Queue: 3 jobs
Job 1
Amino acid sequence: MKTNKTNKTIKNLAQLIVITFLITNLTGCIALIIGGVAETALILGDRRPIGVVTLDRGIQLEADAIISKKFQDNVHVSVNVFNQKVVLTGEATSQQLKDQIQNSILQVKNVKNIINEIQIGIPSSTGSRLSDSSLFTLIKAKLVTTNDVPANSIKIIVEAGSVYLMGITTELEAKAAATVTSKSSGSIKQVVKLFDIITEEEKKKLVNATNTSTQTQP
């Protein structure tokens, strides 16, 4: 009973954050106010151990720095990290640049796997990126308000209308998340599932561990 109550509280908090985020995008006035709240909610619902969350942040920072320092003038590349798995999206002007980027990120400590989805071509337009941003917000809102989808343990990546979903989920949760995402908008070109699949028993252990950690925090 306590576990269900905690999960419901997390879900309600996440819904409030998404609504606030949508308002922020429209008004641009309260972005700084919700920053800390959003971070807390993500930690509460995240199935990754705190140590892995920390590793992912380190990978993200180092990978972003490499892209900015070595390649930024010639590419538009986004780096996303979840559970020590790196997804590269965007555009590079040649296959050689695409390969160089992957090889550089492979040198980053603690990276276990790289999914290189960089497309060969000119960098995307501002309009295309704004469209992706709007699509991201829509998908996030849909997932957060869907029962039985662990939205705070799912990372959404949108690039040129393609959606990539990362996270730690059961097979049923992965299918539900992908279905909700694909039905969110007619402008979605494809939904790519990059989940780390766990069993129902493993899910119970992760949820119990998260709830115990939350209850013991001051």
Job 2
Amino acid sequence: MMHDPTLTANPSPDDDNAQQPTRPWIVLATTYDVEAWIDSYNRDLQQAVKKDNTKGYGICFLLELGGEIYLHTTSEGDILLDVSEEASWAAPVITAATGVAPPSTSIWALPGDTLTQLILGLSGLISATRIVVSHAYKTPKHWPQQY
């Protein structure tokens, strides 16, 4: 398994996201490592998400130098990233890894086939991860779906 087995949980019982454990990150160095991590993450996410929750779930990457990046994959397999203001410094890395120019908002829409490159590019910047069962992605109103 790619994660350290020692898990720490945020103690707030009122928030579904807070009940999800924060896991220390182990730097992933190869595409095989990333693909194995994605497989493990998908299993963990399926266990954490309730059947009636079809929007706003994913993973939160806590970055070493500050900020958070929330990742959600759509039913079409595309990727939504919500990059906090504190994590905006990571935009050049996201662009270099995916070939997608920074958006004018905090929400990035990426093609699904860039997931492995994205995780590989961000890997050295991540300090920890947390499964997210509810996140309000602030997508522009003209986008076809709200996530």
Job 3
Amino acid sequence: MTKFADLGLDPKLVSAVTEAGYETPTPIQVQAIPLVLEGRDVMGLAQTGTGKTAAFGLPLIHQLLSNHDKRQPKSVKALVLAPTRELVNQIADNLRLYVQGTHLKVRTVVGGVSINKQISMLANGIDILVATPGRLIDLMDRGSIRLDTATFLVLDEADQMLDMGFIHALRKIAPALGEPRQTMLFSATMPKLMAELSQAYLKDPARVQVSPPGKAADKVTQGLYFCPDRNAKINRLIDLLRHDDQALSLVFSRTKHGAEKLMKHLVHEGFKAVSIHGNKSQGQRDRALAAFRAGEARILVATDVAARGIDIPGVSHVYNFDLPEVADNYVHRIGRTARAGADGDAISFVSGVELGLLRDIEKVMKIEIPVLGGKRPAEEKRPQRGQGGGGGGGRRGGGAGAGAGGGRRPRGAQGQKPAGNPGGASKQRRRKPRKSA
């Protein structure tokens, strides 16, 4: 059996992972770490919960340990990009475990917190920066950070970054980095755009894959209930939650408004529930996650902003109150359970307007999800994006995008200026778009 000491890592790192409770490397770590140590660009495909952070973090830190160059003002040596604040913080927490006892410093920049404090933190230069793209570009625009000293780039959960429209941010960030540069891209799914991203930013990458794209964790038991409307979904959810009242349950809603409304309804029914979504401040989100981790709240209601950043081994149930607009997000949602070798249940509620989404999910998963109850409803036409409906509605990827990139508010669905008359010839008042998750 391969051990961390067999992978060629610095003894300090081997000691750090041992102290952190890591016994043996996971398959993605066994494959990726030697390649990164060789200086290769790497594209890693692995389902969530397989140890991707250590797969890129340990060999990255190993290479930085030999670099004792004095930090330059505003400079960064290695940049890790992730789509959400929660995932940025999760990655940084793991990296800080690995660098204990070394001279390396790990810092984060995300939206929702003071940019002035981040500017001050960057002033003397840092070794490893973990960031959301939106806030990073804010800092670049202010001249508060130098990326030309960064010779390592990691794109984590790259598929979600693409879905959230961050491709435009990457096109601005990547050219600002130093050369030669080693780039690592990690993802759980492989949409067509991912191959294009790899061609644009990786040089002759080695591909490592430990499970087919779209495959859920092996110990997740999946099932679904057909429900005619939102009220039926709520009643079914409450019944299931009361049946397993000691379980740690994560409930996904498609919209911010829907998540908050559902959380308040559950609290009214006597459950200890909290919520996180794009309308919450960073402090509110942190407190909600802390209560959920500690078991003070047994239920966390979330939009997809939480799908990639939560790493809580005790989550035993994931409920898809609304199916995700993007089929690949289903994989990431249910990957929040059955972590660290545990078993878990993933249960979805499907209405008539969501039957098309269900077909998309089953196509990606290459399975037919078992029906646990309810009569299959007649298929209804999905409302256009932004018009709600189906117990959630919302735009594609809305839950993950809102507030996740930090800093500036996206202009248009993909971060671009909305189409229209640039000269303002039309005086017709535009209808205010509905907020998404």
